[in-house]
Write a structure and sequence with these properties.
This is Phosphoribosyl 1,2-cyclic phosphodiesterase. The protein is built from nine helices and 14 strands. By secondary structure, it is α/β, with parallel strands linked by helices.
């Protein structure tokens, strides 16, 4: 058994993450979010060594455009099942192209993808019914948590079990306050249903830090309201690690493959 993951690109402009789990001769491949053009998504999958037809399933975390992206077109073109909550499906207008491909996910109901088990969980975010994920090969667990305004007790309980973590470190509060964002948008981003600041991400990471927590990949960094070094500093301090032990997913190229 083995499970690994790779960000294909992450940030306010677009998000996609690939998770691959192998058991014997069988490999399950899950694409989480499709926040880029079909061309870019295909290119980045191929750069990761995966053809669209090799995907077992797609999971859309919520309806914001940096996550749903090209999913209705991409999934229909390649005939890939797409999991999302009923709330997300309604919020994107129940796209006809997904009629025979959509599968409904909800908090607390595990999804069996063959050699990967996916456990969706609710996060506090300003979307209709957002879900983030715990992915497991039956032995090791990967936590995925972006787009959440705060670390609820439920989020912490889900992530406590993970051996690797892709975690949002969205903004630096001072940079956000000084930015040219309109006041309503600043309040939204910093609010309880917005995005995790570097400090909030660090506090969450510290809460779930344990001896068997391996790779931590900081993701969904704001290009305007954050600096990679600020996100890295906050997380390394919270986890008691050196700078090169916390990685950052970039908008342009995501991350390397990381084994859970
Ligand atoms: Zn987002
Ligand atoms: Zn969002």
């Amino acid at each position: 058994m083995a499970i690994r993951f790779k960000s294909l690109g992450s940030g306010s402009a677009g998000n996609a993450t690939l998770v691959e789990s192998t058991e014997g001769a069988h490999t399950s491949r899950l694409l989480i979010d499709c926040g880029m053009s079909p061309r870019q998504l295909t290119l980045r999958l191929q750069q990761a060594g995966v053809e669209p037809e090799q995907l077992t399933a797609i999971f859309i975390t919520h309806e914001h455009s940096d996550h749903i992206g090209c999913a209705p077109v991409f999934a229909a073109r390649h005939r890939i099942p797409v999991w999302m909550s009923r709330g997300t499906h309604a919020a994107v207008g129940r796209p006809e192209s997904l009629d025979d491909l959509v599968c409904f996910a909800r908090d607390g109901e595990a999804i069996d993808l063959g050699s990967m088990l996916v456990q969706p969980f609710t996060v506090p975010h300003d979307a209709r019914e957002p879900l983030q994920l715990l992915c497991s090969d039956g032995d090791r667990q990967l936590g995925i948590a972006t787009d959440l305004g705060h670390a609820s007790a439920h989020v912490i309980a889900m992530l406590e079990r993970c051996h690797a973590l892709l975690l949002e470190a969205n903004h630096d509060p001072d940079m956000l306050a000084a930015s040219r964002y309109p006041p309503f948008l600043k309040r939204r981003v910093a609010g309880d249903f917005g995005h995790l600041s570097n400090g909030a991400a660090a506090a969450l990471a510290a809460r779930i830090n344990h001896a068997s927590l391996g790779h931590v990949l900081a993701a969904h960094l704001s290009e305007r309201n954050n600096l990679p070094e600020l996100a890295a500093q906050a997380l390394t301090a919270a986890l008691g690690r050196s700078q090169d032990e916390v990685m950052l997913a970039t908008a342009a190229s995501g991350s390397i493959w990381l084994t859970v």
